[in-house]
Design a protein that fits this description.
Layout: E1 6-15, E2 18-28, E3 33-38, H1 44-51, E4 59-64, H2 73-77, E5 80-83, H3 95-104, H4 112-118, H5 134-146, E6 152-156, H6 164-179, E7 183-187, H7 191-197, E8 200-205, E9 208-213, H8 215-222, E10 225-231, E11 246-252, E12 255-261, H9 264-274, E13 283-286, H10 289-298
Parallel strand pairs: 3-7, 3-8, 5-6, 6-7
Antiparallel strand pairs: 1-2, 1-4, 8-9, 10-12, 10-13, 11-12
Helix pairs in contact: 8-10
The structure holds adenosine-5'-triphosphate and magnesium ion.
Length: 302
Amino acid sequence: MGETAVVVRDLRKRYGAVQAAGGVSFDVAPGEIFGIIGANGSGKTTTIECLQGLRKRDSGVALVLGLDPQTQGIALRHRIGSQLQESSLPERLRVWEALDLFAALSPRSRDWRELLEEWDLVQKWNSAFADLSGGQRQRLFVALALVNDPEIVFLDEMTTGLDPAARHAAWDLVREIRRRGTTVVLVTHFMDEAEDLCDRIAVFKQGRVVALDTPQGLVSHYAGRSTVRFTTNDGSFDWLRECPGFESMERDGRRIAIRGRGPLLAHVAAALVARGIAPPDLEVERGTLEDAYMAISQEAAP
Ligand SMILES: Nc1ncnc2c1ncn2[C@@H]1O[C@H](COP(=O)(O)OP(=O)(O)OP(=O)(O)O)[C@@H](O)[C@H]1O
Ligand SMILES: [Mg+2]
């Protein structure tokens, strides 16, 4: 595999008056789990459909595994896996038939019985597509995206409609997919999923990438404040104002809350311990990816 799994530079796509992608740029490294988050209509699906050769971009560069999806789509098709946001299959097609068919169409394939087990579809192996529940259909589409043992898989809202246990099982499977060497591009609206799974995340807004970093990087940049709390019987704690990153302190009876930036908990804990104080209930509340996402979405448009 080349040095970069995906290269996107200034990709643009317009549908009539709507500029769905207005200059998207990012790279995905081989073996990475790359997340894409952003508001409804921000151009996520349009962009990854252009990368899979399912839509034609108006301009810009797109390379997937070194190939241009627009002109080398046939060579690319067997090397990528696609789980689309909107998919369907013939109503009477059975689960095993769909997997068998997709495997037969691919020069390289995985044993689809393994995929039935991994995606918890063994009991439904002989069911018609029409008789599957929403979550079972979703799991079948992910299994179908993996049957050709792809080098890179595009998952567009993979866990939408899955119950909580199935979602967590899906996350484990995505990590397993990556362990097998497959690069993963994952579009999601679930911030916990993005934070838990992704190595890096691009935040889309109005057809552009407005932030791109590791989950921790996004949180510390856009939601970097934390609050350290503890209970005490002691007198003044004004000396905690000297802690690096300190911003404010509130006291409500015996409860103390300190707000600040950076590794505030470590500094407060060290300062307390240095004075022989070890509050048993010392705790920290940190920003989450959801806080960072909200901060990014409230910033002025690019
Ligand atoms: N086939 C189409 N024809 C016309 N407009 C379209 C078409 N597909 C998408 N759009 C428009 O392009 C914009 C981007 O859509 P896209 O599906 O890429 O968004 P998205 O980020 O995937 O949103 P969601 O989170 O809702 O899936 C939207 O304004 C949408 O209405
Ligand atoms: Mg979409």
